[in-house]
Amino acid sequence: MTLKEEIKKFILYGVGGGLALIINLSLAYLFTEKLKIFYLGSAILSYIISLIFNFLFQSFITFKTRRELFLQRFLEFSIVQTVGLSLYSILVFIFTEKLKIYYLISIILSSALVYFSNFLLSRFYVFKS
Is residue 65 packed enough to be buried (19+ CB in 10 Å), middle (13-18) or exposed (0-12)? Predict the structure, then answer.
């Protein structure tokens, strides 16, 4: 794979992740502000929903994977994302509770920090050629 193709995948991964982030933030706001769910529960629930969207985007648009490995890749992607979710949850808590940052900003910061490790694990573990 050429460097140009790798850069394209990295950018597409960011687009899918960006869309997933919009879903994540929108749902976190809805769950917290409108449904009155505790912000950390809202953040985790919205992350899981955005994970499903993100997997579908990465599978069919970024990495263009074959359908016969769909379930296996979903499980691997879920493992990677669960590790990411653990780190993400800890960061959201630290930023919000300890550093007193508004929870939506905490979600953005946490998502940005987890993005790079998730890309590398997705590229070389989940969607390896």
Answer: middle
Structure tokens at 77: 């992607």
Alpha carbon distances (Å) from 77 to 6, 80, 87, 102: 19, 5, 15, 29
In tens, the pLDDT along 7-30 reads 999 999 999 989 998 999 999 999
Residue showing tokens 């379930």:
71
Q: Name the nearest CA neighbour of 88 among 118, 117, 111, 65.
A: 111
Tokens of 58: 């990465």
H or E stretch including 39?
helix 39-57
pTM: 0.74
- Residue ranges per structural domain of the chain: 3-126
Structure-token pair, residue 83? 């590790």
Strands annotated E in the chain: none
